[in-house]
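Issue 218. Parser rejects a valid record. Input:
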Amino acid sequence: MSRAPSFAQIFQAPSQLKASSPGRINLIGEHIDYLGGRVLPAAIDLYTSVEGRVTTTGSLRLWSDKFHTGLPLVLALDSLAPIASGPDYWANYPAGVIDQFRSLGWECPGLDLRIESEVPSGAGMSSSAALETAVSLVCEAFSGLSLSRIERALLCQRAEHAFPKVPCGLMDQVAVGMGRRGHGVLFDCQFLEVETILLPDDIVIISADTGVKHALGDGEYGLRKEQCQSALEILGSESFRDVSIEDLHKNESRLTDVQAKRARHVVGEIARVERFISLLRSGDMQSLHDVMLASHVSLRDNFEVSCAELDALVESACALGEEYGVLGARMTGGGFGGATVNLVRRDSVERFCEALSERYNREFDNSVKIYQTHAADGAQLVREKLV
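Output the parser choked on:
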């Protein structure tokens, strides 16, 4: 494989700043971040790096090792606008962040960005939030603005809403920005509070990517959010955290079948997060399996965001069980494809990965990409010599 060209080779000048941002895997708490729940993702040791240089061109020039490997993509800063579709759609993520900084008063005269990423796209590892956060760090340094980590996360969320038009919650941006090595990031999405939870050091976080690509901007993500909000209004509560399982059972007859299923997932998942945290704190690793499996089943049956490939991977991991060091498995990310997350004991990782790959290949006549990851620190700026 040929080495990617350097910043200087692409832009004929050296970069001035570089930022690095991790991907993330959500351990538990799926599709409840935009509904005020508590979630437990972890930043992972797969990274997106962004190198930047301020120019006087009046243009945003973008180069990506994944999406734009020829000459840089050039966008005029004075007419920066969302790209509706096509091969340059990916540029909405950095462009949206830059647009947010301009709205804060940064008069950027021109900017060159080189993007390189080992975070896979469409695999539930939040490649978009990693990119947004790294771009934000570069923009902060150049603009002189100073944002707190939660302010940065909110800015990146606004950018994702405005340009790629994905109605995401705040979990991804918080996880990649506030990760801590060896810990999960417990994020209260209603009160914007963050706590880190120690993870056992003998557990490896395994992501198995189906290769089936999901498109969160295609309406399904937004549709489910609308379905949940309409159910909440009928239930007469301001937050799903105020709705117990018993409350839901008493009032299900007032909901449509779809609303009832969506609400069952949200209320159940909120409870599963609390159970998962309790098990981690007590050291009861064996019981994580049932919580993670219940989460997957609910995502499959109640939220209807799974697919045959994800279901097969979870079923295979559960069938391999303790003999292969499996402590739990479920789909992770937005769904409609993507990946599963598996918690596996360190001394069984190689056997597990080999067995899971073999089973998937036998069922689908296709390979699965497996990533061995660990909880990592959050995004940071690497200051190079300004020239």
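Fixed in the parser; the record now loads. The chain has eleven helices and twelve strands.
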